[in-house]
Amino acid sequence: LPLRGFFLFTMFLLFLFPLQGAGGWSPLVSDQYQWLQIDLGERMEVTAVATQGGYGSSDWVTSYILMFSDGGRNWKQYRHEESISGFPGNTNADSVVHYRLQPPFEARFLRFLPLAWNPKGRIGMRIEVYGCAYRSEMVNFDGKSSLLYTFNQKSVSPTKDVISLKFKTRQTDGILLHREGQNGKYITLELVKGKLILSLNSGHANLPSPDARVTLTLGSLLDDHHWHSVRIDLLNTQVNFTVDRHTQHFQAKGKSSYLDLDYEISFGGIPGHRKAVAFPHKNFDGCFENLYYNGVDIIDLSKKHKPQILIMGNVSFSCSHPQIVPVTFLSSRSYLALPGVAGEDKVSVAFQFRTWNRAGLLLTTQLRHGPGALTLVLDDGKLKLSLSQPGHPARDVTAGAALSDGQWHLVSLSLKGNHLSVMVDGEAASVAHSLRGKIDSGDTYYLGGCPDSSSGPGCGGALAGFQGCLRLISIGDQEVDPITVQQGTLGRFRDLQIDSCGLMDRCLPSYCEHGGECSQSWDTFSCDCAHTGYTGATCHSSLYEQSCEAHKHRGNSSGLYYIDSDGSGPLGPALVYCNMTEDTTWTSVQHNGSHLARIKSSNGEGPRPVFFKYTASMEQLQAIIDRADHCQQELAFHCKRSRLSTRHDGTPVSWWVGRTNETHSYWGGSLPDAQKCACGLQGNCLDSQYHCNCDADRNEWTSDTVVLSHKEHLPVTQVAMRDTGQPHSEAAYALGPLLCQGDNSFWNSASFNTETSYLHFPTFRGELSADVSFFFKTTAPSGVFVENLGITDFIRLELQAPAEVTFSFDVGNGRCEVTVRSPTPFNDDRWHHVRAERNVKEASLQVDQLPTRTQPAPADGHARLQLNSQLFVGGTATRQRGFLGCIRSLRLNGLALDLEERATMTPGVEPGCPGHCSSYEHLCRNGGRCRERPRGVACDCAFSAYEGPFCESEISAYFGTGSSVIYNFQEHSNYTFNKNSSSFAALFHEDLTLAGEIATLSFRTTGTPSLLLYSFLSFLGSLQIRYKLDKHHEPDVFNFGFKNLADGQLHQVKIHREAVNQNARRQVILSSGTEFNAVKSLMLGTILEPPGADPDTLRAGARGFTGCLSAVRFGPAAPLKAALRPGGPAPVTVTVRGPVAAATRCAEGAGPGAPAREATGPLAGGAGACPRPALLRCSARVIAVVIFILLCITAIAIRIYQQRWLYQKNESNIPQTGDNAETALKSEVNVQNIVSESQKEYFF
């Protein structure tokens, strides 16, 4: 090819059929096997290329591959963005497409391979290449030689060492450099299986061996006969290790330094007199280029035979080019067909291969006589050689293991006589059989795959072709030259790349985040996220909620949880205790010193600080504290002649240290540096002269308990108590857990009131991994949530239609969209959660609990998202399609954005957003009501029989013999009710008449009969319900054929009476009317002389109730709750008689979802028969059930009897502490001998 070019200083510009000139390169045949090769004359640094189509023609190339080489052999493909191999070409014959190479490369030979061209024309190119002259100093090591450089002590910086070089190796292992010092210190750079390992040993005897020796690993497939750059920076305790632009950083622990070494360093091997390195090692076999140590040109000194350099062995100053020709099998359809000598009585094939694929066809050949064949496959990382002959079972030989590791493996196989063998990396496996007939070799050997037309053994099956590289191929005793195959004089092939190994390590750099393990094949990689706490294609997304506040609003109760404060950020999950209360959420982080600890006398030795280690790292603690609304930590000092500060000048003798390692001597409630305890602020210290009780220095035990609440100083990491040297001096301390309240980002929100308004933030940085999550609510049909733009790239999240949320972006491969469609509209003014993620593997979008939608990324496409505009929230840069509604808890790559702060200074946007109950009211259970708060919601359990943050904790009580609880509704004359009030209490004013009611209770007892709202357990323990709604009629009595319910087990009863005469669903005529008139009070336990009661009811009321009652509710009234939790909003009075003690839970040990029995029946006159109950079985977890419960709720119609019961003389108060009472009552109901059984629930 005619070359025209010139050099200007150190720059060059090569014209090849110059741009804007006539002519150009256009081959006779336009196919994928054409290329244009350029010889630059010597190695140059190539920085840019430009292309143009053929002059005045319809010939141009639309995409191409650029390859380079030092010696015209063993070509390497240039890739930009670490994965993209193709370059964009031209769209016509005249325009120029310029591409700047980042990074540049050094080479003598260039090769341009067209991938696609104008379909209406042919291949046509005009090319310009830009670059600089390149200075190169080389040294060659033969695997037995090395260089030793001894330098002057004054020439070495005591705080910095810099080593840089390029290397090209002929072997997979070898020592590149080594330096050592005293006490076992050393630094070694070694090539091991094509990877570079930097080993550092600090030589500290006081460090355990894993801490003293550190290894950093970088690079992969470095034994490819190409140049690779290395740089090592030792900056005192900091180590920076760089290989081919990939860098690892390491910070030595403590004061360890890797610079305190001897004043000599060896290259290419370790001198024999060195003893520090005990591991086996080989000398380096290959070349170094431009070797510098602290700016000193080592190769130049070696060439000049300077005295500082000692040359050992055969060292030369030139580098030979490899003559090995590899072949790349680019796809599963690739194959190489080579001729063989037919009719020989043996088959012999040998080659080397490297691949990441665990399976693939390596070789198949048809034997000359009959349909027999010899096949070699890679199966699950092992080689399997199979011989098939008609009428005989296949003979198999298996050899090797883990051969899909990317390393070169030598394979040789042979079939001769009755012996079949295969050898892998020098280890042989063979089998001998009585083979049928004579073995005659075939005339064709297929390597890597088969042609489409072939259907013999090993071809056309489910096994895919081989993808990887082969080299050093020999058939029989003849070595194959792939160049002759490329020139068309030997064999045939499809989809190969000859004289190049295109295998690349897709796990370097690893895109698996948070410790995920990377594995790969020829064209992709995957991440194993097991045990990382993260999920997704690249282990990017956290499995855990961001805070206890988020856990609470998913309906979780108090307990231990993992939280990930920075989401997909680097901190990782931390185990904390979440205390969900009615009003707020507390995050509790424990440490190793929560118990009371005594301080021993220091005997004048000074303070002995106590260090605390938390269950979370300091970075995790800081993230929890920063996100909290308030944090505190209790620190208690117990002292006896031990002070916190001295008497004469107030100098602190005790102190604590916070997270910033600053010492503090102020105590809870006071300002920093005030040196006051709580008693000093309140003015009630033991001695008014001092600000702390302990400073009184008394010869008796006293204490100062302080609550530290300055967030910037928490948590406490150390405590020191120095004043323990006096006679009879003693001291102790106790540090509580770190407690943090709320999450200031979970409810951080903004309201967008106009379509042209938006909030703007700095540019979103998420080149390789980007996730966006937030809540939104709106009534608008569409709008943009988030948008960020680049020159051509962009990312956008929007409500595209009332029932569609779309995530769209472009990273250079064209616009990509992921859409989630919902069966119900999103613009329902409820909160909806959106999470979008984009990484190098895929893009995903999830809205609420709808199925996640994903879109895979194109193979070997652009991977980096490059943005440069501001981030727009709630709108776009064009002020079109803006969002109307609310956005809250916006997080980008785990980082929360402060929407409220920006909203305060942005027109059309307001901080905060009301109306949360429409989305979270389902969390309030058992009659609890959702109440709005400025930042969140709360469940109001005032009119529920339950309590707790979600009204799920039942209120229980033990009833002893003769005990009772009387719940009285107040008269209208004493309380005024608002008729329009939504309060349940308004239903119970004056003489309440009920047309129907729902009564629920749980009971546990062993005594019968027991009264229960004119419903009691009969003497046989069966359930009997009586309704008397008219004093002039006999009660309606229903008997249910359940087993004995007085068995000490927990049973739940729900009675639902409807005014059926007003309900068309059931036609039942009641014998005693339909209304419950003049409801005045409810009674639990013993009832003396119930008015109008029949004899059975009188006996049950006199016997009373002994056992446990729980979750009692009659309509809107919760009598147990009113008795045990006074101060509720309902206008009632409650009287307690006898031993009644609060219980933790009657159902302790009974799991939810226990079996239930349901019975229904008409309220007819007399004792109607009960239909056979239907048994409903639910899955239940059996936990020990200990106590049996009975409830008595009775409606009283005559005020005279009510007044009589209210003022009986044996009234008593509820015990405030129920330990003793509870123990006694448990004994009374004889729970020790009860056999555990599943909880029962009954519906009537």
Number of strands: 90
Global morphology: globular
Helix tally equals 12
Q: Can you give the helix content as a percent range?
A: under 10%
Task: Characterize the biggest β-sheet.
Answer: 8 strands, antiparallel
Amino-to-carboxy terminus distance: 99 Å
As a percent range, the share of strand residues is 35-45%
**Derived structural class:** mainly beta
- Taking all Cα atoms into account, the compactness measure Rg is 42 Å
Uncertain ranges: 1-11, 971-991, 1014-1020, 1059-1076, 1149-1244
Number of domains: 8
Mean pLDDT: 80
Give a verbal description of the structure.
There is one protein chain. This protein is mainly beta. The chain has 8 domains: 4-133, Galactose-binding domain-like (Jelly Rolls); 138-316, Jelly Rolls; 327-498, Jelly Rolls; 517-586, no CATH class; 589-741, Jelly Rolls (Sandwich), CATH 2.60.120.1000; 749-913, Jelly Rolls (Sandwich); 917-954, Laminin (Ribbon), CATH 2.10.25; 964-1233, no CATH class. It contains 12 helices and 90 strands. The strands form 17 sheets. Strands 1, 2, 3, 4, 5, 6, 7 and 8 form an 8-stranded antiparallel sheet that branches. Strands 9, 11, 16, 17, 18, 20, 21 and 23 form an 8-stranded antiparallel sheet that branches. A hairpin with a 2-residue loop joins strand 17 (238-243) and strand 18. The chain is globular. The model is unreliable at 1-11, 971-991, 1014-1020, 1059-1076 and 1149-1244 (pLDDT under 50).
